[in-house]
Design goal:
By secondary structure, the protein is α/β, with parallel strands linked by helices. The strands form four sheets. The chain has a five-stranded parallel beta sheet with strand order 2-3-1-4-7. The longest helix is centred in the C-terminal third of the chain and has 34 residues.
Length: 621
């Protein structure tokens, strides 16, 4: 259980560690802010103490600054020089983190206050590691440390060639849980997770290299992700073989000449008949509910109630209902059963576009309404299918046999259905496991086919897909559609930087509230239309839609491209320097990718190259 003790003051903690000869230490804290605060507090308490390494630190920093001038006036400069203490986390600039790592390795620092991310990313061991919490702050809020994360952190304890043993100390804090820490330290490492992912560019490159989907699927089945499924597949194959042997043995003991394929054929036919009987809607309301579940999609207008007078634009779907924008501008959530008519066109889900959608439905609603299915039509089709299956089952037993022989064969066929069902189920489970790896690629292929980058039927990469395959960016399909629709053609460097940054940034990262001019806002609205089209097609194919674009990132990049000074950008965005560096570096790298498309998009490529050069100035690299 958590002790809920107050945090030990940083200065007190370091004094205690020093008294037991446990310095230098890495102290892991759960948040960036607390790392910075703790380093400042600890350094302040040590300013009057004697330290013969102070001048060495000053010389080291001066030498480092000659190659990395961006850190010259860093706000934590004095903390390091006078106190021999530093903080280390992703919010700091890369050059600042590098100088801290070098000074720690050189033995010039007594302690680093760091977040858990430092454990896996760098290699500067210390004599001791201090764990202050069993939790960490992640993108989704507070999360418990995993066994692998804690083992990475504690693995920093002990310096090669200097310490015979490293020390791990659990320090008190409101988030501490000694029992959980002990459990994690003795737990096995977390299973390795495959990073093999189906992406638009990976599919295009594999298909272009190997020529067909079968070869791409074969490559996917060689991945580590597939290897993790092999024990399950081998176990299922063993069970299938055991059931086939039971069927062979039963047939051998009887005098009936019956191939095993006939036994399995009966299972498949009987299963198909059962699915038809179970799947046939028995009431009109059941049929209508299935129809609504299929046709009600984001972007479609629906009529609320049977009168059809009140319209609403579907914004989002849930399992049994919708969130929609009504004609009066208010949002409403209601179950599918409240929907009367559904209209065929798919419109933008942006609220400012809703009026156009409603006007079109008012003008041509009767022509655009989707027809509802009729129960008698559904039942007629199912009855005919069941009759065909029954005839096929009867045909499994040869008619030239005597009545007695036919009855014996029928009894034998049905007596072996438990084993036959187990075989079919096992084969389906094996195919399902194999499709786990391939299905994401197939979904990507259908989306690419819709937008013309791939010919699904002929299993070929199109000319358009050839250049998209070369784009090494986070959201290649969105960039590709923007290029294809000449969205870049009329832009200047400032707007190009804003557009690409809006895509490159993490959706939930806040880069302040800098003002965006009307031209950039209009550009981002245009791009959101493209994003809506792509997301709608991805939703149809079962692909998780891309995150929303980040307007605050667009503003930060636009100001940087316009020539704002780095200090002013940091001040006005109030963002961490490390976050800004990552944003602008990723934006610059994405622009360089676009710059590589000179043969197919010359004007856009030249603009991208020019914009990347502007963005990737000091301190961005």
């Amino acid at each position: 259980m958590k002790l809920r003790l107050p945090e030990m003051p940083p200065s007190t903690l370091l004094t205690a560690l020093g008294s037991y000869n446990l310095l230098p230490a890495i102290v892991f804290l759960p948040t960036r802010r607390r790392c910075d605060e703790a380093a400042s507090e600890a350094a302040l308490s040590r300013r009057g103490s004697a330290d013969n390494r102070r001048e060495a630190r000053r010389d080291f920093m001066r030498s480092f600054v000659e190659q990395n001038p961006e850190i010259r006036n860093h706000r934590h400069w004095d903390t390091i020089i006078r106190g021999g203490i530093a903080s280390h986390h992703a919010g700091h600039m890369p050059a600042w983190k590098l100088v801290i790592e070098k000074m720690m390795s050189a033995g010039l620092l007594d302690a680093i206050f760091a977040t858990a991310t430092v454990a896996a990313g760098v290699d500067f061991p210390a004599r001791s590691v201090v764990i202050t919490a069993a939790d960490r702050r992640g993108n989704r809020g507070w999360e418990s440390l995993t066994a692998s994360e804690l083992q990475q952190m504690t693995g920093r304890a002990g310096r090669r060639g200097k310490d015979k043993v490293g020390f791990v100390i659990a320090a008190p804090s409101p988030h501490q849980n000694p029992q959980r820490i002990a459990e994690l330290l003795s737990a096995p490492p977390n299973d390795l997770e495959s990073q093999f992912r189906a992406t638009y560019t990976s599919l295009l490159n594999l298909l272009d290299a190997f020529g067909n989907f079968a070869q791409v699927r074969n490559i996917a089945q060689r991945s580590f992700a597939y290897r993790k499924l092999l024990p399950q597949i081998h176990q299922l194959e063993k069970q299938i073989e055991e059931n086939r042997n039971r069927i062979h043995a039963a047939l051998a003991q009887s005098s009936i000449n019956l191939p095993i394929e006939t036994v399995l054929a009966l299972e498949r036919l009987a299963a198909a008949r059962s699915r038809l009987l179970e799947g046939t809607p028995q009431t009109r309301s059941e049929l209508r509910r299935r129809w609504l579940n299929k046709v009600v999609q984001p972007g479609r207008v629906v009529a609320i109630g049977r009168s059809g007078r009140r319209l609403a634009l579907v914004i989002a779907r849930t399992q049994d209902g919708v969130t929609a924008l009504r004609e009066d501008g208010r949002f409403a959530s209601f179950p599918l059963e409240r929907i009367g008519r559904v209209f065929a066109p798919t419109f933008s889900t942006r609220p400012e576009k809703a009026e156009e959608a409603f006007d079109e439905i008012h003008d041509r609603g009767d022509q655009l309404a989707l027809p509802e299915p009729k129960l008698r039509d559904a039942k007629t089709g199912e009855d005919e299918s069941i009759r065909v299956i029954n005839d096929a089952i009867d045909a499994l037993v040869p008619r030239e046999l005597s009545e007695v022989e036919r009855e014996a064969m029928v009894r034998m066929l049905w007596s072996l259905q438990v084993e036959a069902t187990a075989i079919e189920k096992g084969q389906q489970e094996i195919e399902s496991l194999r499709r786990e790896i391939w299905e994401p690629f197939e979904r990507c292929a259908r989306v690419l086919d819709h937008f013309g980058y791939l010919d699904f039927g002929n299993e070929k990469v199109t000319e358009r897909g050839q250049w998209l395959a070369d784009l090494r960016v986070d959201r290649p399909l969105l960039i590709g559609e923007a290029l294809q629709r000449n969205l870049f053609a009329s832009l200047d460097a400032t707007r190009a930087a804003a557009l690409v940054a809006a895509l490159a940034a993490d959706e939930d990262r806040d880069y302040g509230e800098l003002e965006l001019d009307d031209a950039i806002v209009s550009l981002l609205v245009q791009f959101e239309e493209i994003s809506f089209e792509v997301s709608n097609e991805e939703w149809k194919q079962g692909i998780e839609a891309a995150p929303e674009i980040n307007f605050s990132a667009a503003a930060a990049a636009a100001h940087w491209a316009s020539g704002i000074d780095w200090k002013d950008l940091v001040h006005e965005t109030r963002a961490e320097e490390g976050d800004l560096v990552r944003l602008l570096s990723r934006t610059g790298e994405a622009l360089l990718q676009i710059a590589g498309l000179r043969q197919t998009h010359k004007q856009s490529a030249e603009l991208a190259a020019k914009t990347a050069e502007i963005l990737l100035r000091e301190p961005i690299r």
